[in-house]
Amino acid sequence: MSARSAAYRRTVPTTTAAPPTRRPLAGLDRRLADRADRPELTGWRRFLTEFWWFGVKEARACVFAGLFFFAVFVVPRGGVWGLARYDVLLVIALALQAWLIWSRIETVDEAKAILAFHAAGFALEVFKVTLLPTPSWSYPDPALTKVAGVPLFAGFMYAAVGSYIMQAWRLLHMRIHHHPPFVLTGILAAALYLNLFTHHWFSDLRWVLLAVALGLYARCFVGFTPVDRERRMPFFLALVLVGFFIWVAENIGTFFGIWRYPDQLGAWVTVSLGKWSSWTVLTLMSFALVSNLKHVKERIHLAP
Predict the structure, then answer these.
(1) Per-residue pLDDT at 51 exceeds 90
(2) Total domain count for the chain?
(3) Residue 24 — very low, low, confident or very high, per pLDDT cuts 50/70/90?
(4) What pLDDT, in 10s, does the model give residues 93-146?
(5) Structural domain boundaries, residue 181
(6) Does residue 290 sit within a domain?
(7) Is residue 298 predicted with pLDDT exceeding 90?
(8) Which residues contact 6 (CB under 8 A, 6 or more apart)?
(9) Which of 27, 54, 120, 244 has the fewest Cβ atoms within 10 angstroms?
(10) Is the dihedral of CA 147, 102, 112, 135 positive or negative?
(11) pLDDT level of residue 58 (50, 70, 90 thresholds)
(12) Interior angle at CA 217, CA 216 and CA 219, nearest 5
């Protein structure tokens, strides 16, 4: 083990202390936080072990998104006990968020960041669904908690991305190396968000801005620890992979009729692959917001 790795190990706690009665996932989290050296792991055995625990940690990081999408699967379209499906999903999303804070799986600061995701996502939804002459998509079911044609639970689908990033950051002991200056990434994130609105009247600058992002993050990579050794991945590749899985989740959501694109009103079809780039943009914007949290910023090393 290098001196740098040993020093880093001493500065980051390997467990998170919390009352066991308030942490239903405490035992699992302690196991996932264990980064004790495993010198006996070599070759294919190490590969398979790291692959397994990487998958387990990723699944655990999706605790909010996973439970929420499970609710999407099981809540019938007709609703429950006279309550419309969208209203039931809002109640479930609020209950999940309250449980995450109560059980200390999420901190209050993280919850505030998630609220910002919700607000930004909901504003975009209202614009795309109601304010455009031709809606980009629609929510066909009735609900008491619809505002401007958008059910309030919709913002939590964006918040789920932020929740995943924060949980994965902690569980995989992630670090960012050669990160661009925060001022530049903040301006880029704001430009990407504004382009989601302005491209309906002006040129779509998505690919131009993504090219700028690729240049900014060209030297940047993310370090993550599946078991006991840090592995590295180009930062932009990580964004693209997360965007892909969000695209898969979007296909699931439209298949179950939670929302529909215009070409899905007659019969369901796969969501356009072009949406993959949109979700990659969302992931980049989400990380720009998460990076302002103190415990995240401490492990982001700026490029010299």
Answers:
(1) yes
(2) 1
(3) low
(4) 999 999 988 888 888 888 888 888 888 889 999 999 998 888 888 888 889 999
(5) 43-302
(6) yes
(7) no
(8) none
(9) 27
(10) negative
(11) very high
(12) 110
SS (H, E, C) 60-79: HHCHHHHHHHHHHHHCCCCC
Q: Using an 8 Å Cβ cutoff, are 217 and 235 in contact? A: yes
115 inside domain: yes
Sign of CA dihedral 39, 238, 244, 69: positive
Residue 202 lies in a domain: yes
135-193 confidence digits (pLDDT tens): 888 888 889 999 988 999 988 888 888 889 889 998 999 999 999 998 999 999 999 99
The three state secondary structure string of the chain is: CCHHHHHHHHHCCCCCCCCHHHCCCHHHHHHHHCCCCCCCCCHHHHHHHHHHHHHHHHHHHCHHHHHHHHHHHHCCCCCECCECHHHHHHHHHHHHHHHHHHCCCCCHHHHHHHHHHHHHHHHHHHHHHHHCCCCCCECCCCCCCEECCEECCHHHHHHHHHHHHHHHHHHCCCEEEEECCHHHHHHHHHHHHHHHHHCCCCCCCHHHHHHHHHHHCCCCEEEECCCCCCEEEEHHHHHHHHHHHHHHHHHHHHHCCCCECHHHCCCCCCCCCHHHHHHHHHHHHHHHHHCCCHHHHCCEEECC
Residue 191, domain member (yes or no) = yes
260 bridge partner residues? 138
**Number of CB atoms found within 10 A of residue 221's CB:** 18
Q: In the structure encoding, which two tokens stand for residue 45, read together?
A: 């055995």
**What is the spatial distance between Cα 117 and Cα 3, in angstroms, rounded to a whole number?**
38
Model pLDDT for residues 192-245, shown as the tens digit of each residue:
999 989 988 888 898 899 999 999 999 999 999 999 899 999 999 999 999 998
